[in-house]
Q: What sequence folds into this?
């Protein structure tokens, strides 16, 4: 298993460019299954989660190749089963349920199961599709779905699930009649997916609000689309600039949907200048403590919680971070504490008492964003930090260590 070695203490300078969004690319790849033909997706990040989705749709019979974007040919889909071996590594695999059942009237998708950050059930996806006429049975850890043509329905989500909104929105595009999703998630990646679906010929209104209305059509055409830049990678690079000090310019930032992240980073005392999609980050003086609560968009993203926690370990005073989306998303705390941070978890909150200096240590990545948090802490720590199990990092960050190197950080990957 690879590890990342960081010799901390270097300030950063220069420019870096944000890659395409993982959380936008994955549902858009799934959505290509709705039509028959050759799809072309640009701006794809190079990530293991994207490879997993590629392998999944190839397993179904799609042909994928990379030449002038990612090309996905969906003419010869011959199988509707997403196997456990692939699904278990990535929860977003469950997004295949919607397009398969909508186009072929059947799907067999392994239940994603739990993951390090919490239980993460899919009950809301299933309940919504049941109301659209899908019959489900669960055997041997698989969800078997079948229906004739899906029918539009009025759906009220118990909570604004991102994946649930995407799955139902994708399925509803080929349903008979109108589907209304109330209490829908409003994440920018859902808006990106809606843009993609509309390019395929779908009738969607209200994306980005809590009520999404989809008017089903009989057929969709293949897609040519560029995915939006990754707001979580952009936020992670902003924290890198802040924690290491110096001055960096981050290009291709989706600033229009990063309000809560930029606002909190400014509250910590970072100077952030925004010019179109370029963001200049400068740290002047000691960081200040802040209070943060993670929330569905447009609130502060749970996917930025671990990274901003690394920054706050060095802020003056006491910061409080409350996590409201996932029940077990503080596993990185123990590892940050091993680096000299002073953090205590009390129920759904982490109390971060700022210290003057972190110390390099051997630490273990426990999930995707936790791995980024530990690398960020390593940039500021005194001495050497070794972050192991970075396969978590590779799921969702496109060449993070190379990008940090290009900014002057002393970071390298040790291959095992
Ligand atoms: C997506 C993102 C992930 C992000 C999360 C929250 C992708 C590929 N992943 O994950 O990076 O951290 O949104 O912003 O886009 N829930 C249920 N029942 C369901 C579905 C969800 O109880 O049927 C719960 C989950 O357990 C969780 C909460 O709802 O506590 C939010 O989950 P959801 O919004 O569905 O997250 P994902 O789509 O899995």
A:
């Amino acid at each position: 298993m690879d590890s990342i070695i960081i010799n901390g203490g270097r300030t950063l300078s220069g420019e870096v460019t944000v890659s395409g969004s993982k959380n936008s690319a994955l549902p858009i790849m799934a959505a290509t299954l709705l039509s028959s033909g050759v799809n072309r997706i640009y701006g794809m990040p190079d990530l293991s989660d994207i490879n997993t989705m590629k392998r999944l749709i190839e397993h179904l019979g799609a042909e994928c190749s990379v030449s002038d974007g990612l090309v996905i040919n969906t003419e010869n889909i011959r199988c509707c089963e997403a196997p456990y071996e692939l699904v278990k590594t990535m929860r977003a695999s469950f997004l295949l349920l919607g397009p398969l059942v909508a186009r072929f009237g059947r799907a067999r998708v392994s239940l994603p199961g739990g993951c390090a950050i919490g239980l993460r059930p899919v009950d809301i996806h299933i309940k919504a599709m049941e109301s659209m006429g899908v019959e489900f049975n669960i055997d041997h850890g698989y969800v078997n779905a079948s229906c004739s043509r899906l029918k539009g329905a009025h759906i009220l989500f118990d909570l604004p699930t991102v994946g649930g909104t995407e799955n139902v929105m994708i399925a509803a595009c080929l349903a008979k009649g109108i589907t209304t999703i109330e209490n829908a998630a409003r994440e920018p990646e859902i808006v990106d997916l809606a843009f993609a679906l509309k390019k395929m010929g779908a009738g969607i209104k209200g994306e980005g609000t809590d009520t999404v209305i989809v008017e089903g059509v009989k057929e969709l055409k293949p897609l040519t689309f560029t995915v939006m830049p990754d707001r979580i990678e952009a936020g992670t690079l902003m924290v890198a600039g802040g924690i290491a000090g110096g001055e960096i310019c981050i290009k291709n930032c989706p600033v229009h949907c990063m309000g809560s992240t930029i606002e909190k980073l400014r509250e910590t005392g970072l100077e952030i200048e925004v010019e179109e999609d370029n963001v200049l980050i400068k740290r002047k003086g000691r960081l200040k403590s802040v209070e943060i609560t993670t929330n569905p968009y447009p609130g502060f993203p749970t996917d930025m919680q671990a990274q901003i926690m690394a920054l706050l370990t060095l802020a003056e005073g006491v910061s409080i971070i409350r996590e409201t989306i996932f029940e077990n998303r503080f596993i990185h705390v123990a590892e940050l504490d091993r680096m000299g941070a002073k953090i205590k978890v009390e129920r759904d909150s982490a109390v971060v008492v700022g210290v003057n200096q972190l110390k390099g240590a051997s630490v273990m990545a426990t999930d995707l964003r936790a791995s980024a948090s530990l690398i960020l802490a390593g940039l500021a720590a005194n001495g050497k930090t070794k972050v192991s199990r970075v396969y978590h990092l590779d799921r969702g960050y496109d060449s993070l260590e190379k990008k940090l190197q290009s900014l002057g950080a002393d970071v390298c990957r040790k291959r095992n």
User: Anything to note?
Assistant: The mean pLDDT is 96. The first helix runs from residue 22 to 31. The pocket of uridine-diphosphate-N-acetylglucosamine is lined by residues 23, 26, 91-92, 118-125, 159, 161-164, 185, 189, 302-303, 325-326 (CB under 6 Å). The chain has two domains: 3-19+229-414, 22-226.
